[in-house]
Design goal:
The structure holds two protein chains of two kinds. By secondary structure, chain A is an alpha/beta fold. Chain A has helices at about 5-25, 30-45, 70-80, 120-130, 150-160, 185, 190-200, 210-220, 255-275, and strands at about 60-65, 140-145, 170-175, 200-205, 230-235. Chain B has two domains: about 1-145, 3-Layer(aba) Sandwich (Rossmann fold); about 170-300, Rossmann fold (3-Layer(aba) Sandwich), CATH 3.40.50. The longest helix of chain B is centred in the last third of the chain and has 18 residues, at about 285-300. The chains are: A alpha/beta, B alpha/beta.
Chain lengths: ~280, ~300
Amino acid sequence: MTIKQLKQKSLLYRKKILEYILMAKAGHTGGSLSCVDILNVLYNEVLNVSPANFNSADRDRYIQSKGHSVEALYVVLSDRGFFPESDLETLCRHKSHYIGHPTKKVNGIEQNTGALGHGLPISVGVALAAKMDKRSYHTYTLLGDGELPEGSNWEAALIAAHHRLDNLCVIIDKNDLQITGPTHEVCNTDPLGDKWDAFGWAVTEVNGNNVEALKKAFENLPVGQGKPSVMIAHTTKGKGVSYMENQVKWHHRVPTEQEYTLAMQEIENALIDLEDE
Amino acid sequence: MQLASQDKNIIVVTSDSRGSGKLTSFGESFPNQIVEVGIAEQNLVGVAAGLASCGKKVFAISPACFLTARSLEQIKNDVAYSDNPVNVIGISAGVSYGALGSTHHSLHDFAALRAIHNITIVAPADNFETEEATKLAASTGRPVYLRLGKKAMPLLKPINQDTFEFGKGRLIRDGKDLAIIATGETVYPSLQAAALLEKGNIMTAVISMHTIKPLDKTLLASISRKCKAIMTVEEHSVNGGLGEACASFLLEHQFAKPFKIIGIPDEDTVTGSQQEILNHYGITETGLASAGKKLLKDFRSTV
């Protein structure tokens, strides 16, 4: 995919995220908008995974630890053909599999997540299995910066470095906002790169809302030989809708019809601008 | 070890628990089939779930007290809810660690895990049951919790042709007066108590209810039809374990009988060795025999 096409995808995904959150009257709006560029590049450029090979032992694995940003994942998976987009009309409805956190009942999803601090330990197990079986697949897991105080992350970080899991990549969606307020005010995790470096990981930093930069960063994995990689993706929560950007209240607020229309106009304009580029 | 030598997909995950898990020689014989995660039980279960999702037959081994408390959320979400077929092996369960104190006792594990959907809960009583349960666990492809004690237990039946299935209790001895339904290390003293009671003409049936969930309801119903009173025994809190599981089934199915739950009472557990603790709470040959006799006597005095 060209960079322009990737940019278009991101904008279209943003529209759909808002559309289905509005329809469901539920969802994690800000976080889905902050991480959707990462998911776009992963699923369209990086991961060797498709509906056709999803049962293959050699597929790449993506495990979303920050499960609450599931709307972004649903939109990307449906675009990749894992399920019909119309399924998303049941989002958060009674008896729907499309609930507010990822579950394996939805085609394309690897693990049931949602409780924070679980994605990395599971990913370490998946990456270890690849080493044991001499398989070449890679394992990626997306963590929010707000979930980093969960101790299980650091338990897993230690053992991943100990086992030299260079087939494992953590992406941190560092939007510096969580439900209470700015992450550095709730529980400061900076300097974040130094911490992962001290735990034996190879660290890279990237603009997590820039598909071109993300694509390059993924191409350069692993960051260090014999070390697991961590990609600190600097993002903006609510990215792409100016009145949502960097606003803590949009963590899981659902837009009103009026706000929705405003957001759609802004994204439409961005699409037009992109055409002119 | 025999299983591991035949199946390279069998993986043991341990959190610095090789010594207490008697895994040192396993690690030496199968260095490629053991994963050490350090003292980090949450990670132990999460990593085990990841391995299991890739087709490994995983045994996640750690003391029951830590495994089923500190990593309860990982058992709930990463194993049971995600349906990753990990065999969660809680060792030195109950009050096996005796004088090490309450930090090291697991008297909550049945209660905590019974409320979680999609995990079989098994507490073998002797080497026969442990071996059979381990073989089954390796082959079920489902989440299993195996609760193991520390002490070497005598065989319940020196020779047997019993089949062993999860969810099917074993009738170790038959009787028509009192039924003792026990699990894990408490089955053997129950059997001793039954022999003692028989000398006083109280015919006592003993069941090894190795599977706490799913409970063997057929066996419970049939023993309850046959016997006058029922006593349950477990090295677990009296709250939420085998006893309450049996009680709720029996009461809901109109099998109201004189009934007694023997376990560790809801109090600051007495200190001492495992045996001293069990003696204190009457989980012994004589303690169980007198509790059984009393249950029947109280029953007779009310009719």
